[in-house]
Each structure stands twice: as C-alpha cells, then as structure tokens.
Amino acid sequence: MAQSGVETHCIACRVFTFDGSQNGQSLLVSIPEVLDPQYGMYVWPCAVVLAQYLWMRREELRDKTVLELGAGVSLPGVVAAKCGAKVILSDNAQTPLCLENCRRSCEANSLHDVQVLGLSWGEISPDLVQLPKLDVILGSDVFYEPQDFEDVLVTVAFLLRRNPKAEFWTTYQERSNDWSIEVLLHRWKLSCLDIELKTFDADKPELAGSTLPGNHSVLMMIITLKTDDI
Ligand SMILES: C[S@@+](CC[C@H](N)C(=O)[O-])C[C@H]1O[C@@H](n2cnc3c(N)ncnc32)[C@H](O)[C@@H]1O
C-alpha cells in the first residue's frame, strides 16, 4: 500500500467509553484518526467489537502480555493496555505511517511503555522471532484481503507454536459469502471457536458510545493450536 504524508491530512480524535454493568467501572479512550481513506488510518467496526470483548475480560488481562497484529490506530491494544496488560502493537513494517498511528494512539492515552513494532504478516523477521512470551494475540479486521489470509495465519501459527497456551482473539467483518479461512485453519493445524456477540454485550449497532458497528456483520473468533499439537 502506498503511503502519503500524514502532514497533509487532518487528525481528529474519536472517543470511546466502555462501561461496567454492575460495578460502575468505566474506561474512556481517545483514538486519533487520520482523515485519509487508507487502511490503518481510522477505527474499523471490528475494532470496537474486539475492544468490547477485551473490556468484558479485563480482569484476566492484568499483567498478561498481549501483541496486536495489523493494529492501525490500535483501539483494542489501547484498551488492553488500559486494563493492565503489557502490550506490544504492530503493523506492516512497510507502512511507517501505520506505525506512527500506533504511537499516536498510545500518546493520546498516556501509555508510555507500549512497544511498537513493524511486523509484516507471513514474514519470519528478527523482530517476530525476538518477541517475548505471549498470552494473547489480537487481530481486528485483519482478514479483509483474501490474498493475505494465509500470511496472517502463517504469522499466527508461528506465534502459537512458540506460545502453545496463547490464544488469537480476532474479529472479522463479513464482506463476501465466498471468503473463508476454514481450509487454511486446517492446513496450519489451528482450531477456531466462534464467540457469539451477545455473550459479551456486543450484539448492538452502538457500542462504547460509537455507532461504528452499525449494521455491519462482525464475527468474533478465538483461534488456538489444535490440541493434539500442544
Ligand atoms: C482493515 S485495517 C484494520 C486496522 C485496525 N486493526 C482496526 O480494526 O481498526 C487492516 C490493518 O492491517 C494492516 N496490514 C495490512 N497488510 C499487512 C501486512 N501484510 N502485515 C501487517 N499488517 C498489515 C494495515 O496497515 C491496517 O492497519
């Protein structure tokens, strides 16, 4: 993807508020978006759904090590960090502006110890190999170009083999009935569990004070190594 200079574009913050149902806890995050039509410059509907999932599991995230792939403006990673996880954000090593977006989102939320790395799907780079032990890998709307599906899963399978107890938490926007990752999951010996949106209060057109989910069809999945591989 060609990247034009951010300096020619306007940046505006979008605010999300996650509420605790019973205990009155809430979390406000502010995500700077670049008014530019390229991927990775603004928050996608999938990101709000994944962030809501993280918020609902916030107690378990404390002190966990979490890596976000294809983070773009990084709403899920920022929420994980705010919930006490040690977060590493990543995006394509070839798109420095997306990495800049990751850093800008951290700054906007006073997160000073989040690492940002260039990790391109399907590439076993030194940065990928040198990652610390991971508990959770995040991917919001990373299955959006069928030609990249296998590269995403190659990276995920590599990471899960090095961290057999880790899980890949991912949200997927249905854009075509013809697209599927089923064959690829089988090829890379991965299992997939579908998580119904209603189980984490995300089956609504409006989430975290945002109308982004709207009537998009977003699915939540947890991908792990096939158990006979662990
Ligand atoms: C549809 S956007 C989703 C962005 C963000 N996760 C969200 O949901 O708001 C896809 C993201 O994947 C990143 N991406 C695309 N190709 C990639 C690759 N080959 N390796 C790593 N990241 C990639 C893009 O830069 C972009 O940030």
From TrEMBL:
Gene Ontology molecular function terms on file: methyltransferase activity
Alphabetized, the UniProt keywords read: Methyltransferase, S-adenosyl-L-methionine, Transferase
Q: Any keyword S-adenosyl-L-methionine?
A: yes
Q: Which SUPFAM superfamilies match?
A: S-adenosyl-L-methionine-dependent methyltransferases (SSF53335)
Q: Which is an annotated Pfam family here?
A: Methyltransf_16
Q: Does the keyword Transferase apply?
A: yes
**GO CC aspect terms:** cytoplasm; nucleus
- Give the GO terms filed under biological process for this record: methylation
Family matches, as PANTHER family: HEPATOCELLULAR CARCINOMA-ASSOCIATED ANTIGEN, HISTONE-ARGININE METHYLTRANSFERASE METTL23
UniProt record similarity statement: Belongs to the methyltransferase superfamily. METTL23 family.
The entry's protein name is Methyltransferase-like protein 23 isoform X1
